[in-house]
Amino acid sequence: MTTTSNTQERFIPALSYHVLTPLYDPITQTLLREETWKLRLIAEATLQKGEQVLDLGCGTGTLTLMLKQQHPETTVVGLDADPEVLARAHKKLARAHLEVTLTQGRATDLPYLNTSFDCVVSSLLFHHLNEGQTRRTAREVIRVLRPGGRLLVADWGKADTFLMRLAFFPIQLLDGFATTQKNVEGALPSLFLDAGFEEVETIEVFHTLFGTLSLYQARKKS
Ligand SMILES: C[S@@+](CC[C@H](N)C(=O)[O-])C[C@H]1O[C@@H](n2cnc3c(N)ncnc32)[C@H](O)[C@@H]1O
């Protein structure tokens, strides 16, 4: 495993405050049904032998690890802005003896060459980005994907019941109203379309204790 760095604008940490980071894994494992929808996201990625896959906003590396476990014949790369979560991810992957490259960087300014990846997956990153950052990130993902490459995203989506809308309120209090507004509006698919993706679809919607979690897919034009 390697860790490289570049530093730019501020970012929102995994649970908004660095002091809460140790609670991130226990909360996502127990309260968010993390394994269920992360496995579904990986299945939808339809990864093939030899492909290059980026886990964007990889955090503590749970999805990164699952990707490499499910598809050991792919090259998996994780990127996150926060060196603290990357250190946790590093330990988790080392314990599992999995070979993955972890990079510190910003989703809005990816430190990769054009057309480097066959697939980009991302879970729970986009509600940490405001609309402008989301647009820049979507454009960056298009830049680093090969023609026809896939984007798979799991993030908070538009609530389909009043209870789900209410359940999302604590996440908005924690991570901010400015960054989560587009999620409340269910605007991620249209932002991906605006960036130039095609075949943008909602794959599945999960009801969780903290609201509606949506899985999206999109494809870069061939
Ligand atoms: C809620 S956590 C999700 C972590 C992981 N993907 C998961 O599903 O458990 C959001 C992550 O996005 C990272 N992040 C926030 N803004 C970022 C940015 N601009 N660029 C890269 N990572 C960012 C945070 O450091 C944090 O680790």
Descriptive notes:
The protein starts with a strand and ends with a strand. It is an alpha/beta fold and 222 residues long. It has one domain (3-219): Rossmann fold (3-Layer(aba) Sandwich). The chain has helices at residues 24-31, 34-45, 62-70, 83-95, 131-144, 162-167, 169-175, 177-184, 188-195, and strands spanning 3-4, 52-56, 75-80, 101-104, 117-123, 145-156, 198-208, 211-219. The protein contains nine helices and eight strands. Strand 2 (52-56), helix 3 (62-70) and strand 3 (75-80) form a beta-alpha-beta unit. The chain is 38% helix and 25% strand. Residues 1-7 have low confidence and may be disordered. The structure holds S-adenosylmethionine (SAM). S-adenosylmethionine (SAM) is lined by residues 11-14, 28, 57-59, 62-63, 80-82, 85, 106-108, 123-125, 128-129.
Quick structural gist:
With 222 residues, the protein is α/β, with parallel strands linked by helices.
